[in-house]
Amino acid sequence: MGILKEMQRTHARQVRAQKQAQAAAYRHQQQLRREAEHAMKAAQRAAAADERERKRLYVEARLAEVAADKSELQAHLEELDSLLSATLDVDDHIDFRKLRKSVSHPPFNPGPLGTPPPPPDWRRFEPPAPTGLGKMFGGQAIYQQQLAGAQQAFAQAQAQHAAAEADRQRRLAAAYQSYQQHCAKVEAEVAAHNAEIDRFASTFAAADPAAVVEYFSMVLGNSVYPDDFPQHYRLAYVPESRQLVVEYHLPTLDVIPAVREYRYVKARDEITTAARPAKEIKDRYANLVAQVTLRTVHELFEADRSGLVETVVFNGIVDTTDPRTGTSVQPCLVTLRTTREVFGELNLRNVEPTACLQHLNASVSKRPAELAPVRPVLEFDMVDKRFVDEVDVLADLDQRPNLLKLSPTEFESLIQNLFAKMGLDTKQTRPSRDGGVDCVAFDPRPIFGGKVVIQAKRYRNTVDVSAVRDLYGTVQNEGASKGILVTTSGYGAASYEFASGKPLELIDGSNLLYLLAEHAEVKARIDPSELD
């Protein structure tokens, strides 16, 4: 029985040990599981934190995008608002002296050719002289042989050096000649450039119309505008009246940003925009048109240090498509004629642009956003001299009539015919004592029509302002709605200044030639030289 009990105790110990081992294993497994769960939860918490950080950074990126859009929008608006002020600190004058070039040649650099090769050194050829026993056992004879060979080798080396030096000298001379030729070419190019500048300056000083137009084209070309501005223009110059006419292309309405504000809607993850009110767009566009007008006139007057321009005519047009018809149109949105004296009295840093245009008696579109046009104070094509330069096919013989050589009766008939072709009903005419023609005509158009007084002066010299004052008096005495003064010459700044804001229209020689060709199919010319 003792053995059986011992066996039972041993079995019991084994069972307890096994259960203890199993319990320990279970506890270890549970510990590992708990650790795994902790690790999983930690990973989940880290992932959630990472997701929150990712989302935060994404929102910040979207908000930064909105901030960039807002900043760009604000910068563009500020640029549009400062179009006039931005040019006031810029000197628009082009100094011809600064257009000249000077020559500055770099010194001649021969490179390796400038260093002659060293001559051969006899010490490298000379054999050692025999000494001691060498002299006694035939060393002297051997030395003499070696010396003769060394002298021959040295002579050959000297010949080779002389040949190499001669070749170097030839190549050095060729390189220097090429350098001189290059310098001469540069000097010739610079001389030609400076001669062209001098010729241009001379023709400009002489008030050559082509040179004047080119100079002021460069002035306007130097004016820096936003990239989406067209910056296209045409210029014409009338030396008789020192009048510069510019037809300037204005930007379209879409230059004003249609967006007023950018916002980021986090719930929908999208950037939305708020539209700019239509009235604000129209007001900003009207202000922009006024700024460009004043800026251009300012730049032209400021650039004219020679006093070649007394009067500037500005026609601001828009090259666009009529949304109603789909056709291309170029309505004139603003037109202005002003003199240097009147414009010089303005303080452009403090003016309100649209009010300033009213002060200058400019005609401005009431609805520029709708492309409602105004009638230019002077059509650009009326001063374009190209048609004056036409020559008759019969070589040197020009068959066009010279208006200055017409008789008073012929000139009167020509003027009457012209305005009849233009739609006026001429009722009365009488010859003028000054060689011109006066007539009272009627414009049959309703509202815009009425009585029109026309005076024509067949002059060679500039019409004095007194003639313009007389016309205005006649208009008032006749109860006319408009007065037209036509001349074969030109007008001065005082005449344009007096006519500004009054129902008067001044037509100079270039305008008259245009109107005759356009409406009466008469190609004429005005050449005072034939009267001398």
From TrEMBL:
Region (Disordered): 1-52
GO molecular function: DNA binding; restriction endodeoxyribonuclease activity
Coiled-coil region(s): 147-196
Official protein name in the record: Restriction endonuclease
Gene Ontology biological process terms in this record: DNA restriction-modification system
PANTHER family to which the protein is assigned, alphabetical: MRR RESTRICTION SYSTEM PROTEIN, TYPE IV METHYL-DIRECTED RESTRICTION ENZYME ECOKMRR
Keywords: Coiled coil, Endonuclease, Hydrolase, Nuclease
Comp. bias regions, Low complexity: 17-29
InterPro entries documented for this protein: Restrct_endonuc-II-like, Restrct_endonuc_IV_Mrr, tRNA_endonuc-like_dom_sf, Type_IV_Methyl-Rstrct_Enzyme
Limits of the Restriction endonuclease type IV Mrr domain: 404-516
